Amino acid sequence: MTTMTMSKALNAALRDSMDADVNVVLMGEDVGQLGGVFRVTDGLRDQFGDRRVVNAPLGEAGIIGTAVGLAMRGYRPICEIQFDGFVFPGVNQIVTQLAKYRHRTLGGIGLPVVVRIPVGGGIGAIEHHSESPEIYFAHTPGLRVVTCSNPQDAYSLLRSAVECDDPVVFLEPKRRYWSKADIDTSMSVPLGQASVARSGRDVTIVAYGPTVDTALEAAEELATEGVEAEVIDLRSLAPLDLTSIFESVRRTGRLVVVHEASLSHGMGAEIAARVQEQLFYFLEAPVFRVTGFDTPYPPSRVEELWLPTVDRVIAAVRESVEH
Amino acid sequence: MTSVQTTAGPEVDEAAPIQLLSPEGELRVDARIDFDLDATDLVALYRDMVMSRRIDSEAIALQRQGELGLWPSMLGQEAAQVGAARATRTQDMLFPTYREHGIAWCRGVDPVDLLGLFRGTTLGGWNPRDNNVNVYTLVIGAQTLHACGYGMGVVRDQVVGTGDATVDTAVLVFLGDGALSEGETNEAFVWSAAMGLPVVFFIQNNQWAISAPFSTQSRVPAAQRGAGFGIPSVRVDGNDVLACLGATRAALDNARTGGGPTLIEALTYRLNPHTTSDDAGRYRPREDEDRWRALDPITRVANYLRSSGTDVEALDSRLAEESEALAVRLRAGCRALPEPSIEESFQHTYRDMPSELQRQLRVAVSHPSQSDEEQS
């Protein structure tokens, strides 16, 4: 057990992945001497050299597109995209090439590429540095989409992502980079499984990435009112661990989904649709969603009004419980 | 000396494209390129071009008969493709667009396998590792970056500059004039130059990106694009198989020794419409096509062979027989291509099928398709 920030845990996962497999190559803007703008790759270039920690030219399509070619040659590239809002020039390569190549070659060649992206707001950043692009990737067949909410999962899920033979989009909640916890580097967490972050009998709150802590905080406050909320941390957005969601909602009969991404057509919509399909007669209340709004991400001085807050989660839970 | 001018682009004022064989079939010497004619099997190159053309014309016929949904013809580009492909070694990796039927032929990809993508039986058609030819890429320019990444892998595998001809490896990526405008192509130029990658960009400037003439993509010849990226570039007569072979061989040799990327612009012409669904009459004059027809890449080799004492009529009749046999095999092979199953799509989306896809597959197979119902 060691105490680490999420950023250090990710750094440890990268180091241990590169130690374990010489074919793992790291690529991204400023990932070398600087250690990345969030220092997630700190020290790796010194340890592994510039053949394995590649300072890429400034082009996101290039980072993903060359990773595709490296993977065809037998390597396991990990790409770092500097910020969520800058992934879009690379999305063509992610959607039309990376996600489809196994299918195109009838299973003959899979591309084990990890695309790491810092995501989400709440850090007082300028435009394009606070976005939540997960649904574009979750909607794309062939991709796995994974996110972490705490240092242990950050470490263990990133290790699993690197070992996975499918392409993985790995979303790192940037406002949790500095959250600290004890982590056990021998602990393995398979991709595709949600976790129960807090047990409760009255209502299920589904969250992922940066909003898990928000949901947990709301749950603690609700407990003082006598409402015991169960918090499910999705961890895998695609494929979605519906079994864990259904198991919880079958017991509680109430569901609130929380995410930073805009409301419409989001993860919340998907989860609500699945739950009503499977658990229609178990539901005691409509499914509620607490999310960002259907506007571009606002200027940072008002971002607290845009992001799902503890208060908004509590209000949604009350509405569900009182329904 | 007959030079090849772009028909739609700006007038070219730089050095003429390298030409070793004139449209009349006369040998030329060009100081920019070393070429050992004695070591070149011109009959073999001639055969490659004739057979490639036959694959192309047979596929067009199959499309007309309703056996293929679409076919992108390579008519007129035989010299560029055969010349480039015959410059490669077994270990080299090739990244085609979707029009490189002559490349596939030369590298030993079964021509029947080219048809599946256009018949709708597959999205690929062959194993890229069997002949070191990637499956066709339809998204314009996307493959240029794959070539760079593959080249990065080649460098990391230390199979560049060893001096062993059976080991040193280069990457040959094909693109057209339209791809010059894609951001990804330009990123690939940056990557390959900055990292000194063993990648050769072979641009078949066939003058047209569907209906857009070359001048829509560039105000300077494609070969001039390389300089700004620091990539040595060369312009060749793309209808001259010897120039294409010589220039590509030199570029690949340079790449294999660690000399970095080269850009080759092969000036040629897409004699047919973009695909069988296109109507070139709506955007370009017939005289343009006629002018390029007179520069036919196969005719000039026949002219040379004849003038150097080969019995071309006997050769042609042998090749007519061989290409007819190939056409028969293509027709039968096309109709015998295995029908895809919907299960395959589900099986190959991920390495292991997620439970949700297993559920959706059960839905997909529980409803007989309309065509099944019509047959029953």
Provide a concise account of the structure shown:
The complex is a heterodimer of chains A (323) and B (376). Helices cover 37% and strands 21% of the residues of chain A. Chain A contains twelve helices and 14 strands.
What features would you describe in this structure?
The complex is a heterodimer of chains A (323) and B (376). Helices cover 37% and strands 21% of the residues of chain A. Chain A is of the alpha/beta class and 323 residues long. Chain A folds into two domains: 2-183, Rossmann fold (3-Layer(aba) Sandwich); 195-322, Rossmann fold (3-Layer(aba) Sandwich), CATH 3.40.50.920. In chain A, the strands form three sheets. In chain A, strands 3-2-4-5-7-6-12 form a seven-stranded mixed beta sheet, with helices on both faces. Chain A has a five-stranded mixed beta sheet with strand order 9-11-10-13-14, with helices on both faces. Chain A has a two-stranded antiparallel sheet with strand order 1-8. In chain A, α1 (6-20) packs parallel to α7, α3 (60-72) packs parallel to α4 and α9 crosses α10 (267-279). The model of chain A has no long low-confidence stretch (mean pLDDT 98). Helix content of chain B is 47%, strand content 8%. In chain B, 48% of the residues are buried. In chain B, strands 1-2-3-7-6 form a five-stranded parallel beta sheet, sandwiched between helices. A two-stranded antiparallel sheet of chain B has the order 4-5. Chain B has 16 helices and seven strands. Chain B is of the alpha/beta class and 376 residues long. In chain B, α7 (183-195) links the parallel β2 and β3.
